[in-house]
Amino acid sequence: MAGVDWTDSTVEAGGVKLHLKRAGPAAKKARSVVVLHHETGTLDQLPFYDALAAHYDVLVPHHPGYSRSERPTWMRSVRDIAVLHRGLLSELKIKDAVLVGLGFGGWIAAEMASMAPADLSHLVLVGAMGIKPPQGDILDLAITGYIDYARAGFHDQKVFDRVYGAEPSIDQLEMWDICREMSFRIAWKPYMYSQTLPHLLGAVRAPSLVVWGDDDRVVPQSAAQRYVEALPKAKLEIVKASGHCIDMEQPAALAKLIVDFIGRE
Amino acid sequence: MHLMYFTEQPMSAYPEQAGRDFGATALMLSNKHFDPVEGSRLYNNYIEQYMLAEEVGVDGIMLNEHHNAPFCMQAKANIFAALLAGMTKKVKIVMLGNPLPLAENPIRLAEELAMIDMISKGRLVSGFVRGGGQEQLATGVNPAFNRERFEEAHDLVTRAWTQTGPFRFEGNHYQHRVVNPWAVPLQKPYPRVWIPGVISKETIVWAAQQRYPYIALNTSIEQTKKIWELYDSVAADVGYVGGPENRGYLIQVHVSDNEEKAIENARQFRWMQGEFTGLAHPVWSTPSGYGSPTARRAFVEFASGRASNPRGETSFEQQMADLRIIAGTPKTVIAKLKRILEETRPGILALWGNDGRVSQADSLTCIKLIGQEVFPAIREIAKSLDLKSPFEANAPVHLKYSTDLKPAKAAAAE
Q1: Which ranges in B131-217 belong to alpha helices (H)?
Q2: What does the alpha-carbon distance between residue A35 and residue A108 come to, in Å, rounded to a whole number?
Q3: Measured by CB atoms within 10 angstroms of the end CB, which terminus of chain B is less buried, N or C?
Q4: CA-CA distance, B333 to B373, in Å (whole number)?
Q5: How many domains does chain A have?
């Protein structure tokens, strides 16, 4: 999928400057797909983003306090991020968006959807955090080394090596530390889930697709079933030979599931 | 000069090999290795040590706390402080200190400390610390707000001690409808607060801004001098002149009646595999947000095994040569301590006398020699060097109780 032109910009939402990457077909009417990244931040370019950008107007906002977006020191909850991202969509006059949430970004997407916006087109949750898994616990960042944690997201370690390099750079480690600190600031206790979110998901109007890797060692698969039960119109897809980071490990398979779910345009 | 005895209260009965096999000796090393029968014996040994320390004339007993680790058995320093308040008669009970950010309810902490101060008839020194990184994880406290919680809890505790209640406290991290503890300290305006630390510049600056004595924990002479340089420059900025009454120092010193035995026992200061507070997993000892952002890069390099510990690692021999560990007969020890006093001019000195598996008999001998031979000589040296403790200097408990503040320039010129 080479040749996708990504633009970088800074958009202010709720007084916070957010870094935004955006790409898509030249035709102006393409549907907007908002991809919400992991708690490990995001790399600038990923084949998964390119695959979606072949069909849709893809927006990858960097969460406040993560990657290239500044840290609002007042922020205390993941719901705060969801509110800012809702503000971002209004600022950009984006309607009928598809939300694709990856892991921690899935939690943010679920929070945004739970606010029951009338114009949400589709919700896609990929290995989403945000709900207490009925069985097992979400892997704890606080007691896991930077590289061990990032590697735990992959079923096949050779894929990790290709994405981040077998020995990730010091810049990457430093970025993981910055992201980790922000996660602590907003999701320390209870760790990486909300006790109220499952009760609010009944308000989601959009059809939802819940996707999980068959070897997710970060968020137990039991959480997938809980999401499917809580969302009014949800279906579950399991991706084989994938860990938590399906977007990086099986980008084509994930992109295809999404295209099939929301329709080609 | 205020002279104290300190022990980490090592849980020396834990199987050392278990720590080596696991690769860390704090936080996640299983408590199946803790034996409460040995724990009971050791706690009572430490009480015996403290009682002897008072008997042989030390000025203070320094207490601290740590969690989930064999290097320190005190999980709550206030428990031992309360024991000493009732069991001793003269010594200051010097807590260095209570980890403020770990408190979910600082008012309760203020009450406990007030009780200790009253029961001891005004012998409490209430030091405060941030708590180590592992302590935050052991108690489930958010490391990213460690410093904010420290400063806010300090504000709440000192207000609970000094401001007539009831009042309401609405902070960022602590909110309390009613602050009105009936237990308030005997000492006025409140018990002295001393702040121990190892490397954080921010803590040195904060202590100097409050005019609280800073207690350097086993730093080298050069590091200690740099700490006082920084402390004094902040002191000048806020209008006072830093001096010995603002300076404390803790050093590992083992005293024996025999040079060889002293050195052999002093090797036990490295009993936690050479590390000050045990073999630490870097990610647990410095969780994200706990350290200074300026040290972030160095720490991630260390945490990923690509750089040595930015806190530094030195051998036993080097630490002996640097005078960070001193061992010997009283004569040897006094001569070496004299050099430290001359070079760094503290008004508070704590000797960390025994560690690891030093026998109770040798520990008691060490305490006896410290009290009967080392400290009397140190007192004379301190007099000749005019090293006054905060008590002798009648220093204000906090900057706001100062009566001698000068404009910054005048203080800097002195």
Answers
A1: 133-139, 146-162, 201-210
A2: 10
A3: C
A4: 10
A5: 1
Between CA B38 and CA A20 the distance in angstroms is 59
Nearest to B381 by CA among B329, B414, B346: B346
User: Which of B22, B135, B300 is the best residue to mutate to test the A interface, defined by the most A CB atoms within 10 Å of its own CB?
Assistant: B300
Q: Does B283 touch chain A (CB under 8 A)?
A: yes
The answer to whether residue A70 is domain-embedded is yes
Which portions of chain A are predicted below pLDDT 70? Answer: 1-2, 27-28, 265
| Domain limits, chain B | 2-413
Structural fold of domain B2-413: TIM Barrel (3.20.20)
Amino acid, res. B302: F
Among A residues 193-222, those touching chain B with beta carbons less than 8 Å apart: none
Q: Which CATH number belongs to the domain containing residue A212 in this structure?
A: 3.40.50.1820
Residue B306 phi, psi dihedral angles, 5° rounding: -100, -5
For residues A210 and A227, the answer to whether their CB atoms sit within 8 Å is yes
Neighbours of B111 (CB within 10 A): 18
List Cβ neighbours of B172 (8 Å cut-off, separation of 6 or more).
Answer: B148, B152
Q: Measuring CA to CA, which residue among B259, B165, B246 is closest to residue B211?
A: B246
Task: Answer yes or no: do B283 and A170 touch at CB < 8 A.
Answer: no
Q: Number of C-alpha atoms within 13 angstroms, CB side, residue B204?
A: 22
Structure tokens at A103: 């892991």
- Can you tell me whether residue A32 is helix, strand or coil? strand
Please tell me the predicted confidence (pLDDT) of residue B311. 60
pLDDT means over runs of 10, chain B (414 residues): 97 90 92 96 98 98 96 96 98 98 97 98 98 94 97 98 98 98 98 93 97 96 96 97 98 97 96 77 91 89 79 82 96 98 98 96 98 98 98 98 87 72
Domain membership flag for residue A27: yes
Q: Which residue has the tokens 């981040």?
A: A164
Residues B91, B9, B388, CA angle at the centre, nearest 5°?
35
Does residue A2 belong to any structural domain of this protein? no
| pLDDT tens-place string over residues A105-121 | 999 999 999 998 888 99
Q: How far apart are CA B377 and CA B361, in angstroms?
A: 24
Q: Which residue has the tokens 């000493």?
A: B84
User: What H or E segment, with its residue span, contains residue B365?
Assistant: helix B360-369
Which DSSP letter does residue A199 get? H
Q: Which two tokens stand for residue B344?
A: 């760094």
Total residues belonging to chain B? 414
Residues 170-189 of A with CB under 8 A from B: 170, 173-174, 176-178, 180-181, 184-185, 188-189
Is the residue at A33 inside a domain?
Answer: yes
Q: What ipTM was estimated for this complex?
A: 0.94
Per-position DSSP letters for A225-249, written without gaps between them = HHHHHHSTTEEEEEETT--S-HHHH
